[in-house]
Design goal:
The protein is of the alpha/beta class and 749 residues long. The chain contains 22 helices and 35 strands. Strands 14-15-12-16-17-11-18 form a seven-stranded parallel β-sheet, with helices on both faces. It has a six-stranded mixed β-sheet with strand order 5-2-1-4-3-6. The chain has a six-stranded parallel β-sheet with strand order 19-31-30-22-29-28, with helices on both faces. The structure holds adenosine-5'-diphosphate (ADP) and zinc ion (2 copies).
């Protein structure tokens, strides 16, 4: 290229979102020819400082926009895609998210791309295709049935068929290789086929009950426009059947359906139900996939080949050419909110996406969030109720056990143990819930009251005996050997206090020696495939004790469970977080909902020291909706979310004093900026600032944590001031201090 540039010739520029933690996008120059070929939403290789990065084009700058001449523009390295791989809808969604959650667009965009594309790998990976070389050679394969079957299947595809599809039909690569060795078949590399096969019904729908029918009709009326629904249905009331019947109509029109669930690994049943109802491509998007599987699933969604996209939180950013319906199941679940880095909430992003796509969205839950009920009050969500359990199942009966007066063995009341015994004698399953893994939460010296604490956190170390004896901090993962004597007084009177799932398991083994006990927690399911095996065990054994944490509470359908026990609900009743009652009520109702889902009726036992707690009384004598109604009134009176919008500023450093000093100074600035002059008399400030205060766990992994909460009744105005202020904060903060902002925080820790 000639060095002398004609000053009048146009300069071709694009604006690129670069994956760095900086809030700006950056301009690069390219040739006229490249400019022609550049597409917004396509990837581009660039150098940034000394690094080589992959960015996404967000703007083609018109050539008549003058160039800031003091700036030396760098040229791009290469264009990587010949079309937009992030379509306009998804780019708008990402831009909106970056603005709303105050996070750099370049990093936000990363959420939407599979890692192979983030690394700059080509979009069109070639697929391995197998072809028959020698037709009608079946006779040569008399001895191996496997090889004969594979050969037969291949023979009906004269154009060859992809290894992926062969694998899906149960044909192993070793079989193919064996046939290749015999010279009967061979491989070729071909571009992948992204054409979409027609969707077919594989199974008839169930006959909907009246509540289900009404819900289905209402949603179908909104098929071609944006409308948001809250499907508020009791546990076991058949919400999934409503999803399936609505999906059927949407799929028939050739549109795609996006289904978000809290955790795919935990609910393989959901996938099975979709697969057995519809014959179509279902793309699964979750963190358990390897990179190439994830890329392929994403491509199936992005090209329209997959009709159903089933994923966890980040799947909300998957590009789809024909999105016609979004379903968010268990919408109250906290895992829809990302708790670190880019702290988005897939439910709120989902509502915005449905509006962009002009399609309906269904938020389903047996225990909807208070936020969603508030949206119903405001007319932004249409509430559809399912008020009976589907089929013949009825709701379980709740019983409260007062731990203050109950006779106990191993932390379980005699009454509960008797009921467990009776249930097992009837050859039914018992489910015991305790949200604490490990053996015991505290190790105490009975002589001098020394407790095993984490050296880096304000927290006790948890005692574990498996896979070996050790003390473990569940907050920073510090591991210590179990001391044989008290480090303070050298007595050997160390005693575990309190109970975790491992201890309850040991106690139950002692009390019910002949019973199968299945423990489900992060420790027992950490190996790949173990959860799958556990689930099979649960479905194969009619009589068993299932014992576990949250993992057991989520959305499962265990038809043999007729007794559910919650061993300790008190921590949730006593927490200071204003959302704690909501979480506790949801947990109780969800765990209870695992009982009596089959033919037989179920019971639920709650152990507590606070049997007269209003939350429990409301849930037992009324229901979750009554609890929600009451909670809405309380939140409104206290001017708490959802009646005001919140943002949480977290600050962390080596000294609490530094945190406090910085936050105080910044809070004054925000107050000055956002307060109109003159101050309106006797009204709330536009932005109400709480704190700074030390975080509930002040020291974590050796660093001090502080909080500041901002509350405002006016979301748009608050965000306006916040944006400016946040940029200022980033500039002014001392370098050893880490800050982050959490818009619409779900947890105050
Ligand atoms: P939810 O998702 O609301 O907890 P599910 O969709 O899992 O409930 O339904 C619970 C059970 O009821 C499932 O076994 C399902 O097959 C069954 N079911 C749902 N709808 C009907 C119906 N209309 N008739 C008969 N059985 C139904
Ligand atoms: Zn001691
Ligand atoms: Zn720790």
């Amino acid at each position: 290229m000639p060095n002398s540039v004609d000053p009048n010739s146009p300069i071709y520029r694009i604006r690129v979102a670069v994956p760095v933690h900086l809030y700006d996008c950056f301009d690069y120059k390219l040739s006229a020819e490249q400019y022609q070929q550049a597409h917004i939403g396509a990837r581009v290789a660039i150098s940034f400082g000394r690094r080589h990065l992959i960015g996404v084009i967000v703007e083609k700058i018109p050539t008549d926009v003058p160039l800031n001449s003091s700036f030396q523009l760098k040229a791009i390295d290469a264009l990587l895609d010949d079309r937009a791989i992030l379509n306009e809808q998804v780019l708008s969604l990402l831009t909106w998210s970056a603005n709303y959650y105050q996070f750099p667009l370049g990093e936000v965009i990363q959420t939407a791309l599979p890692s192979l594309l983030r690394q700059g790998k080509p979009y069109n990976l070639l697929a391995t295709v197998w072809n028959v070389l020698k037709p009608s050679a079946e006779n040569e394969l008399k001895r191996s049935e496997k090889q004969r079957n594979a050969y037969k299947l291949l023979s009906v595809h004269p154009q060859g068929t992809s290894e992926h599809l062969l694998n899906l039909s149960g044909i192993e690569n070793s079989t193919l290789k064996a046939l290749q060795k015999k010279g009967l078949i061979d491989t070729a590399l071909k571009p992948q086929d992204f054409s979409a096969p027609p969707v077919q019904m594989a199974q008839m729908p169930l006959t909907a009950n009246p509540d289900q029918r009404l819900a289905i009709q209402q949603i179908l009326k909104a098929q071609n426009k944006y409308q948001a629904f809250l499907l508020d249905g009791l546990t076991g009331s058949g919400k999934t059947e409503v999803y399936l019947q609505v999906m059927q109509e949407v799929l028939k029109k050739g549109k795609q359906v996006l289904v978000l669930v809290p955790e795919i690994g935990l609910t393989p049943q959901t996938i099975d139900r979709f697969q057995s109802r519809f014959h179509c491509h279902i793309a699964l998007l979750h963190s358990g996939l390897n990179d190439s599987k994830r890329l392929q699933a994403w491509q199936y969604a992005e090209t329209g080949k997959a009709a159903i996209i089933l994923g966890t939180r980040s799947a909300i950013y998957t590009p789809m050419p024909n999105l016609g319906l979004i379903i968010l199941d268990e919408e109250h679940d906290l895992s829809f909110k990302q708790q670190e880095g880019f702290r988005y909430h897939a439910r709120d992003v989902g509502l915005y996406r449905a509006a962009l796509a002009k399609c309906p969205i269904i938020l389903g839950s047996a225990t909807p969030s208070i936020d969603s009920y508030h949206l119903v009050e405001q007319g932004k969500l249409t509430c559809l109720e399912l008020n009976q359990r589907a089929g013949n199942a009825i709701m379980p009966k709740m019983h409260v056990i007062d731990l203050k007066i109950a006779k106990k063995q191993h932390g379980m009341s005699q009454q509960l143990l008797d009921e467990i015994g009776k249930c097992l004698a009837r050859k039914e399953q018992v489910l015991i819930f305790l949200n604490r893994r490990g053996y015991a939460p505290v190790l105490l010296c009975e002589q001098c009251a020394w407790q095993a604490n984490c050296p880096h956190c304000d927290a006790h170390l948890t005692l574990h005996y498996q896979p070996y004896s050790h003390l473990h901090c569940h907050h920073c993962s510090t591991i210590q050997r179990l001391p044989s004597a008290c480090p303070a007084c050298h007595h050997t009177s160390l005693k575990p206090i309190g109970m975790g799932t491992a201890k309850v398991e040991a106690s139950l083994q002692e009390l019910f020696p002949d019973q199968l006990i299945i423990r489900v927690d992060r420790d027992s399911t950490s190996r790949v495939g173990s959860w799958q095996k556990i689930q099979e065990q649960i479905h194969q054994n009619k009589s068993a004790i299932l014992l576990g944490t949250q993992m057991l509470a989520k959305g499962h359908h265990f038809p043999y469970v007729t007794l559910v026990a919650i061993l300790d609900i008190d921590a949730g009743l006593l927490s200071v977080d204003f959302r704690a009652p909501e979480r506790t009520a949801q947990l109780i109702v969800q765990v209870a909902g695992r009982s009596g889902r089959g033919e037989k009726k179920g019971d639920v036992y709650l152990q507590t020291h606070r049997p007269d707690h209003p939350l429990l009384l409301t849930l037992i004598h009324k229901d979750y909706r009554a609890f929600a109604k009451q909670t809405l009134i309380e939140r409104q009176q206290a001017l708490l979310p959802p009646y005001r919008y919140a943002a949480l500023l977290r600050c962390e450093s080596r000294s609490q004093e530094n945190n406090q000093q910085f936050l105080k100074q910044m809070s004054q600035q925000l107050q000055q900026q956002s307060t109109p002059v003159p101050l309106p008399p006797a009204s709330l400030p536009l932005i109400d600032i709480w704190g700074p205060i030390p975080a509930p766990m002040e020291r974590k992994a050796g660093r001090y944590q502080a909080h500041m909460v901002l509350l405002s009744a006016e979301r748009a105005k608050m965000h306006f001031y916040l944006r400016h202020w946040w940029q200022q904060l980033l500039k002014e903060k001392p370098s050893d201090l880490k800050i982050s902002i959490d818009i619409d925080p779900q947890e105050l820790n």
